[in-house]
Structures are given as structure tokens and as C-alpha cells.
Amino acid sequence: MTLPEELSMSWFCRMWLVSWLCTCLLLGGCKPQETKLRIAVIPKGTTHSFWQAIHAGALKAAAERGNVEILWKGPAQEDKHQEQHDIVERFTSERVDAIVLAPCNRQSMVAPVEGAIKKGIPLVLIDSGLQLTKTITDSDKYLGYIATDNKEGGREAGKHMLKLLNEGVLKTKPKARVLMMRYQANSESTEQREAGFQEIMSKAKDVDFVVHPEEAGATVASAQTAADRMLRTPGADIDGLFVPNESATQGVLQAMRDLKPQPKLVFVGFDGNDVLIQALKKGEIQGLVLQDPFEMGYQGTIRAIDAAQGKMPAQLNQSTRLRVATAANLDDPIVRAMFAPDLGLLRK
Fold first, then answer.
1. Could you give the residue ranges of the DSSP H alpha helices within the chain?
2. Residue 86 lies in a domain
3. pTM for this structure?
4. Domain with 72 in it
5. 102 and 91 both lie in a single domain
6. pLDDT digit string, tens, across residues 226-238
């Protein structure tokens, strides 16, 4: 290239740059587009209505704050511990801005949580707790725990059970036989509910309390199978039955419906979906302890966004509300909001 050609090219480049700068000024300046915060929200499962409400709450938080992308990923079933483990590790390697996690297992999820925190990724636990190690609690990347007071939820279920037994079967017999079917080992939230219920039952002198040896398992189908075996066992004379989560409650309900005649007992469950609420209205279930999963998803995501922007929580642990739903209080606005949250954001 000759010298005149070089000068001509240099003049052309200068003119292009001036034109670009003028365009930027006319458009109000050329600020680089702000990068969206990437918040990973990892539930125990994705099938139940409970998790859909968590997702909707997270999306509401993101929409309010703006410029936030929710990365929603979890195992289909709540017993897929390794799958959830791998999801946390993958988001850690992708260096998301923060993680909101409902651990499937309080023990097996410790290692991936420690791994995320060591990589400098803020992490908040929701719904179900974790076996907290020094690595977790000593780090400013651990953002605490937002959930129902699960033990209190179990206590409320126990109090409701005793109230109904005293109004019914205990008027005709000296002792009532109450059975509890557990969910699955190392699920911290349901273990707390079971402990709360057992605490109330153990203090009742007119109750013969039994913990069923078989667990409900992670699905409606597994709970139905276990409940069917239990209810068809010769001599299974049960006056009251408690199970501590949505899938177990629905599985037991379906097993009871399959029996002819349907057993007459006080049935108290945990969580609400359309099937369970309709059963409550019909009198097939006498009480459902409701949580506020929408609020968990919302508050957990707000906390994660704040941490990604350098703002730490004032307190680590936060309890969301709970209520015992009955056929009589389903029109209460608070109760209704807990079993029928606004899921509109999921459809956008």
C-alpha cells in the first residue's frame, strides 16, 4: 500500500469513528449493556405443585428486581440425590452469580454446597435444611435458611389430630390408635415435621402412637403402595393417620379410596394441591398443614440477588408462615393464598 493510500484509509477510519460517536450521542450515550445476574434455583423435585409455587415465587423476585435470569433446574423426583448433586456442581462450574437450593438430602448435599461456597458463589437454603459444617457456617457466602418452621408444623398437625379425636372417637373409647408414616430418611424438613407430630402424640395419655416401619418414599405411587399394604394388614385398626408431605398425603388418599368401604379415620396430611384440597372439601381428609412455598421461592431469590450485589442478610434464618387448612377455613384469604398462589409467571 502506498503512502497516499495509507493516509486515505486513516482518514476513512477517523470519519467512521466520528460518525459512530455522533450516533451514540444522539441515542443518549453508548453505555455497555448491563449483564444479567444468573441465579440458579434448584428444587428437590419439579413434579409437585409445591415446587411450581417455589418457581413462581423466584420468577416474581426476578421480575421485581429486573435484569435477573432464573436458571430453574432440579431432579424430577425428590429421591434423585445424585442428580441434584450434579446440578449444583454444574452451576458451580458455570460460575452462576448465586444459588438457591432445597436439598434432597441433608447429608449427601453437603459436599456440593461446600464446593459452591469455596468457589465464592453465594448460596441460600430453602424448604429443607442441611447438615451444616464449619466450612459452610464460617463462610460469608452462606446466606442462611428460609423455610417453614417444620417442627412447629408437625406440632400443629398433632394438635389438630388430638382435637378431632377428642371430638369423635375418644368419646366412645378410652384410647385412640394413631399411626404416622414417615417420608424418607435424611429429608430434613419432613424429619422435623415427624418429630413435631411425635412430640405432641407422646404427651397424649389417651393415644397409642405407632410409627409405621415402612416409609412412603418420594412419589405418590410409592406412598400409595406402602399405604395399601398398611391399610390391608389384618388387624390394622387405626383411628388417626398422619403423613408429612404432599406426595405421601396424595398416595395415602388414593390407597384409602381403593378400599371398599373407605376406612373411617382422622387423616391429617401436609401441603396442598388441587386433588388434596378437593378431598379436604369432601371430608376424605380432615386437615392439611399448609406452607408458603411461593414466599420461600420469592424470599430465597431476593436474598440471592442481594448477595450477588454485595448486600448480606441481616439474619440467617427466616421462617415463613404456616396454617392448618380445614374444610371450614378454605375461603380465608391467607389460607387460600397458600394453597392457590399466583402461578401466572410460569406461563409467560
1. 3-26, 49-65, 81-93, 110-118, 134-137, 150-167, 188-203, 220-232, 246-258, 274-282, 293-308, 333-339
2. yes
3. 0.83
4. 37-148+292-320
5. yes
6. 999 999 887 678 9
